[in-house]
TrEMBL record:
UniProt key word Metal-binding: yes
Family: Belongs to the prokaryotic molybdopterin-containing oxidoreductase family.
Ranges of residues in domain Molybdopterin dinucleotide-binding: 618-719
Listed Gene3D superfamilies: 2.40.40.20, 3.40.50.740, Dimethylsulfoxide Reductase, domain 2
Keywords of this entry: 4Fe-4S, Iron, Iron-sulfur, Metal-binding, Molybdenum, Oxidoreductase
Annotated protein name in UniProt: FdhF/YdeP family oxidoreductase
Pfam families (UniProt xref): Molybdopterin, Molydop_binding
Keyword 4Fe-4S assigned: yes
Amino acid sequence: MNVGSGGGFRAIWYTFKKGRESGSVWKLYKAMRTRNSCKTCAVGMGGQKGGMVNESGSFPEVCKKSLQAMVADMQPGIQPPFWKKTSIAELAAMTPRELEHLGRLIHPLRYRQGESHYETITWEEAFQTIAAKFASLRPEETFWYFSGRSSNEAGFLLQLLARVYGTNNVNNCSFYCHQASGVGLQSSLGTGTATIQLEDLEKSDCVFLIGGNPASNHPRLMTSLMHVRRRGGKVIVINPVEETGLVTFRIPSDPISLLKGTKVATHYYKPHIGGDLALLWGIAKALKASNDINLDFLQGHCNGHEEYLAKLEMLSWDELELKSGVPRSDMEAIAALYAKSERAVFSWTMGITHHAHGVDNVQAIANLAMCRGMVGRPGSGLMPIRGHSNVQGIGSVGVTPKLKQQIFDALQNEFGVELPTTEGLDTLACMEGAASGEIKAGFCLGGNLFGSNPDATFAGEALSNLDLNVMMNTTMNTGHAHGLAKETIILPVLARDEEPEPTTQESMFNFVRLSDGGPRRLPGPRSEVEIIATLGSRLRPDAKGIDWDAMHHTSTIRDWIGKVVPGYEKISSIDKTKEEFQIDGRTFYEPQFGTPDGRGILHCHSIPELKGTGEQELRLMTVRSEGQFNTVVYEEEDLYRNQDRRDIILMHPDDLQRLGLKHDQRVTVANDIGSMNNILARGYEKIRPGNALMYYPESNVLVARYADPQSKTPAFKGVVVKVTPQ
């Protein structure tokens, strides 16, 4: 039976299913209600208001993603006999879902090249091995990678360790997701994050949802979109695929929505993959033609407006239609809807950032907001929909190759630490360094670096070239089975709600929450902060200005953060006051921007040619399923797209016919980067002809390493492939 809406009774049934897996529904409910922030997406919930409560105090706010993550952390531990009987080859043959469901990691593990199995080792052996290897290397021969699953405290402490060790090769997972958002917003508005709070979204009367599918990946946003619709607001979805949950969603916590369903999108437009930039400029051109651009705002608050208006005049409709795949009449219709809005919010996800021109895309969105004065006022603004629950916080506390000058100066002046001034490498550059042999060791705080990389074949080879790779994780993933270094060590860590001391996280709305932590579920795993502080005391015992014993306590780390990170001053006392806070200087309701002169900056772009127009070609985007979160796959099925497996390529039936294929025929999907065999080609009427989708991270083997030159973000959504029968 095909699923015709997102959420609904299936979601309720799924809650009971996950409850049974965790031991009981009551046990799962109690775990979800603790005062800890959600472990999945950066929309955020929980903290001191209690689990399943959002920033506005609404309860219950819960989604399948949060349940899946919690139940994964409630799994039993993987016992030593498993590692003796299960070889690396057997692990490599497992799917991402099978690896995730093996259980919790509870012992440090080591793999040495030439061996066939992991072995369990003691914590002391692990610490000695790691410290000895890193001490033997030049700091520039190492990289330090951070996931958004960790706390602000762990992130800050590890980047501090990396820098006093002597390297700025400090990078995070945002380089592979929303770095283009940060760069684009910073270059346009002088801020790299959302300009609004959650309540602004619900006050808006027009929401643009561009290149994203929050019904699957950020389900709690659907409640806010329901409120927009009920007040008569418009929701304009721009996506090459008609996503079921963005058409109709049944919100389980709302009886009316549950029974009748909520119509989400008032308008739905499907450009070609890679056609967003042309579409955004077309909307602006239509606004100019209808005299709906706010010239007073542009002249009074923006730089570059004369060049911007001239560019709109110069662009031809023929070019915009050809490169977007959207007719002029639709662009004019979108502009007319926007022109009637009094409070508009622009939101987007990786359908915008995962392109070789991702920063241009974000700048074009910012242009659209500024050209009607829809930024710097209540109920209006820009909202990148962030992925992992603390990916924004990790960046805020200094996990970037180059520290913000204020943080750099404060660390040296306040605490007397000595910091390197070398130019650090971004994530992809670190992978290139590993492949060339210039980088010899890596340290990964959470995540799945192998699984998140483009060109999976290259990623495996690069990581295998390392002398040592250290990974701190709660469960197994593909990075523990592929691309293993000459020596690979896995350190089992506590989940957020098991930490012995409170930690903090930052939502995509710039709101900092306090997580209480809680009792450990299993013996063996250790706190991330404890592990990092222990390594610091061994690797840099005499680091100037740092007391590693004091750094075992998260309160000490928060004191440092409060003194060096702008806007984070209140974090120093958050464990005592329990006062969660909005970061100062990011959300603004006056058109006073964070640029040097306080004015917004309008950018002009050259619109790239539409790729994949050859007779045998398709434009491919890699996507997440409804049953996964980032690289973690919880379910093989993709419920909302009515797919029962992941080894498939979805394309329009017209493309099946054009390529001489039949539904469910076995094919090879290939390009110059790689190929995938035994893939099922399936007709899918909801996707725009000429385009296709496949599941991430499996399809990363087809994604080139070429990245946006401004953000270093690879083009996971702009892949040209050929599909041939087997």
